[in-house]
Every structure is written in structure tokens, then in C-alpha cells.
Amino acid sequence: MRYAVGVDVGSTQTKSVLVDEQGRIVARSLIDTGAYLVRAAERSLEMCLTEAGVSRNDVGYAVGTGYGRFKVAFGDDQVTEISCHAKGAWFLFPRTRTVIDIGGQDTKAIKVSERGEVLDFSMNDKCAAGSGRFLTNSAEALGMEVGAIGPKSLEAKNPVRLSTVCTIFVETDILSYLASGKKTEDILSGVHGAIGSRTVALVRRVGAEPEITFTGGVARNIGMIRSVEEKLDLAINVSPDSHYTGALGAAIFALERMTAGSQVLA
Amino acid sequence: MKNAPEIRYQGRVHELQKELMGGYYAQLTDIAKGRSTRKNAHLLIAGNPVELVRAFDMLPVFPEVNVLQIAARKASLPLIQKAEELGYAVDNCAYVKADIGLYLSGYEAPYGTVPKADLLLCNYVGCNVYLNWFEHLAELTGAPAVNIDVPFIRSADGEPSSEDVAYVVKQLEELIVQLETITGTALDWKKLKRTVELSARVGEMWSEIKSLTKLRPAPYDAYFDSVTMMAVLYCLRGTEEAARFFEIALADLKERATMKQGPLPEERFRVVIEGPPPWPFLRVFRDMFTRWGAVAVASTYSTVGGIWEFGFRHDPERPLESIARHMLSQNLCNRTFLQRYDQMDRYVNEWDADAIVIHSVKSCRLFSAGQGDMREYFVREREVPTLLIESDLEDPRYFSQAQLRNRIDAFFEALTQRRITAAADVAAGGVA
Hints:
By secondary structure, chain A is of the alpha/beta class.
């Protein structure tokens, strides 16, 4: 049995997914990227192999993706995470036509063909406003774990309207709301609402064609899912593997290349 | 694909341009250092009356060209910061800040010294920041300043009204009086006609050079190599040496076209590029396209100082009127947004392009505003794959290499993937 692997070296975390020849996920791994990208990619692969009990020699093809894709030293090829999220989302939900990916530093809306090809995409400009980091900073400002802020935001009765999507200035905004006695859940609802609006604006630029699939680390946050659904007035697909979608897409590209040989992206 | 091939077009055109521009900057330095008593006027690129300046044997000086040359040598940031220390805002036009910073640094540039202006000739007022730029220079240097009020094009057909033309001609007549005072000589109409005739000839050859990129492969990159020729087109237009340069360039590029030589080993994508280049990172930026075999077959930036490919020529029999028409309608910046769409549409169709890349300029909202709509127009209504990316033309702080490369890679990956799928469909029995 041969295997294909996708390694997504993101700005915050590194994810790997190992698939078998039938495209079944046999292992996944998730670690913080840190400062040493080559090592992060290596460790992430090793964790996958250990989990699956697979030898490195059995890996037929590896694709690197994410900002650190060129640091995947063992990679046979590199593909941007835009193509990989499209591919991964389409693999998980074949009727996907629009992908929303909110990662650590950027937010993307991707229009996808019925075959998982990227038709168009739109991203935040060179500024992390409205990205995953915005949520992390908000959680820190409130002294909470990032995993807890989504559920908490759903308890809001009187959501505040946050005037900023700036990842830096949000901290002072939160402090001023706290000073004026606002409840944590109401502030968090404002935080999620601000990112939700910004995300939906990006989605509309490529056309919000259903089905819509939400990928990336932030898709684990129930507050964000609800915020985007409410603003789009549509139910969105979220997989338990959403965090691994980029790595999964890379693994599917790797699998295609391993089996087709010549049919590669350039 | 992953490593950019080193082969690129560095032919006679580039060599000769370096030589001519070296000579031009030596003339600037001679004036600045007092070795020449020749008068000079500082002008803007977008549609200018350089023929009139040349007819008086004054040397035209182009602050925009001066500062972009500095940016290309990675030396713009200290100048920009010098202007910011004076109070210019972070998001103010970086060309303006670099030029003000250059003046505050004694006009000493890496390629020579810029002379203080004898006349500040603001010929493009569509940008209110540019208007203030020359006013600030007037205040700082004490040089006389003239603003020629060039109305925006407002008609559906893109033509200026006869009143608009008469209005600009009248101002040019007033300018002649001013130039006569500065130089102490009367206008030599014969010399003006000859200068205009030379501009017409250069326009003709430049237009022919531009049509060469309709061929496959394009013999040069209409964005990255065009900027080389644009330096001569703008700084030396109206001179015999510019005409000679374009004769040689045309012959050289025609020969390359005949031999089917392109700037890259393989032309895999033909693109139209909108917007000025990020001068501080020109090579890095070019490599991002080279990696994918993407060649620009047309660019709007190459029309920022004049549009000749659609038929306009200066007319030596009507020198002032043709200069006025050039200033009004035959340059990118004075046109309406719909005309910009039309221009790009023609490039896509007549130059047979696969895609459009819009490079938006962070410190120029005037030119960049509306480019989001532009992208949507081409994607949705014209079904042309279009990428919008953003950095800056002068300020290196706005350039994020990883972010830009990510977007460019994703864009060409998607185009490649669609080609593979389409080819597979054809192979599978013409289902495409």
C-alpha cells in the first residue's frame, strides 16, 4: 500500500493529512508552527506516520501548502492553500461551490467549480484585520481561552457593535466596553459579528453560490459559524476535519499526482 | 516552475536605453552643478506639453521618473521618511514624498543631481495631490509655478469637446509667453513643428512596437520591458535621439518576432497588466510571473504618458491643437473609468490575452479607487479571469512578498488546472 501526504505549514499551525490509495484519511496531525518551518513540517509528517503505523518509504507523494510550503523539504511539489482549500472542501462536500477559509492571518472566499477547481477568489488585503488572529487577540484581551469564546458569544442578549476589525485596535475597544460595564458575551458577539460581516463582504465578491463550506481553524468556532450563517441567511457545511482542509486538499493533490504521474499542476 | 529561469530579454533596447538615460541624467547634473546654463522645467508624465518645452531648448525634468529610478535602486524609503518627518501623512502619495525628500536631500540622486526648476509646469491637474505637490515645490524652492487646467474627459465617446481643446490651447499660448520670458528667446515655430513631427514619428513607431505583442510569442514583455522604452518615450520625446532609439528598438523587436523569440523560454500565459509596477521590487515581482511562463502582452501603465496604439498622432501642421488633444484625451489618467474598461477589453481581445492582473497602488487612491469594481466587471461581465493584488509604486513598506506570491501562484494554479481539465475533456471525447 502506498500513501500520499499533504502538509499545510500555516502562519500559526502546521497540519498534515495522510491518505491511502483510495483517498481515505488514515492519519492527521496538528502542531504549532513556531519559528522553524522545516522542522515543523518534518515533525508534523512524523506524527502522522506514527499514528498510522506507516513507514516513510510507503509515502509515494508529498505536497506542501500554506505560507511555509517551500519549507516542506520532503515535498515533491507545492500548491497554494487557496487551491488546496478548494480541493479539500470539494472532497469533503462535493456540492461545494463557495469556500470560506478563515486562517490565522488571512481570510479567503473561493469560488469552486463542480470539479473542485478554483474559478475565482478574494482575500483580505495585506492586513490581518478580520482574521483568526483577531479572535485570538480578543480572547486574550478578555482573559479567555480561544476555544471558549465561540460558545460564550452565543449567550449574548445585547450584542455590542464593534467599530473596528483591526486586530491591534480591537484590544482597546474591548477594554473600553469592559470599562463601561458591558457583558463578556455581548462583547464577544460583537467580535464575531465584525468578522462575520467582513467575511461575508469577501464572499459576495466571488458570489455566494451554495453550497458554502467553511474551512480553516476558525471553522471550529461555533460563534463564527452562526455569525456567517446568519449574515448569509444560508446553512453552511462544516466538517469535523475543517481545520485540516488545506492539508487534506494537498493530500488529494498528492494522491492525484501519485496515481496519474504526469497529470500535474505545472 | 518553482525556480524562475534566468533567461530574459536583455537586448539592444535595454543597452541603448541605459546609454541614453545616462546621457539625459548627465544633462540634468550639468545644469544642477552650474556647468550648463540651459533652463529646465519640471513636468508631470500624464499628458504633457513636452514638445513646447523642447522647442525652447529647455530640458524637461520629470519628478516621477526621478523618484521611480530611486525606488528601483531601493533607495526611496529614507526620502519618504524625510518627508514624513516634515508632516506628510503615511498614506500620502509616495511619489510626492520621495520627491520632497529628494529636494530636502539636496536633489542628490544615485544617478546624478536634479536641478532646481526654472519653471514648475503642473500639466496634469486631475490629481489634486499632484497639484499640491508642485505648489509645495514652489514654496520650498521659490521657483515659479504654472498650472495648466486640463479638464477631465466627460464625453461618452472619449473625445474632448472643441471648447475643451480651445481652452487648453489658450493656456498653452499663455505658457509660450512665460517660456519666452524665462528663456529670453521668442518661440521658433519651425523648431516646434519639427519637435512635434519627431513626436509623431516616435508615436508611430511605438504604436508599431506595441502591435508586435499581438504575435505568439510576444517578442517582449509589454509591462516589464515596456517600462524600459517608456523612459525614452517620456524623457526624450521630441528629440532626434529618441526617434533613432525607436527605429533601432522597432527593428530589433521585429527581428525577434520573426525569429519567434519571446522574453521567456516558453509563453504559457498571456496577460494584460493594469497599474504601475512596484518599483522597489521590480525584479522580484517580475519573477513571480516568469515562474509561470506569464508574459504581459499589453499594459495600461504603458499609456500613462500617452496612448498611441489606437491611432493618435501629434500633427506638426497643428502643433498646439495636437498637444492639447494629447493632454486632454490621449493619456490614461485623464480618461473615464469606462474608457479604461474599453481599453483593457481591447487589449484582451485584440492582443489575445488569457487573463488580467490589476496591481493596485496603496498610496494612490485616485488611480486605484474603483479597481475592485473593475475586477468584478471583467470576471462577471467579460468572463476574463482577473486577479487584484496590491502593494505600492514607491513605498517598500507596502510590499509583502509572501502575500503577493501566494495570490499570484494561486491565480496561475487555477488557470493551469482549468487548462488540464479542459484538455482531459477533449481527450475523453470532446466533452468540453
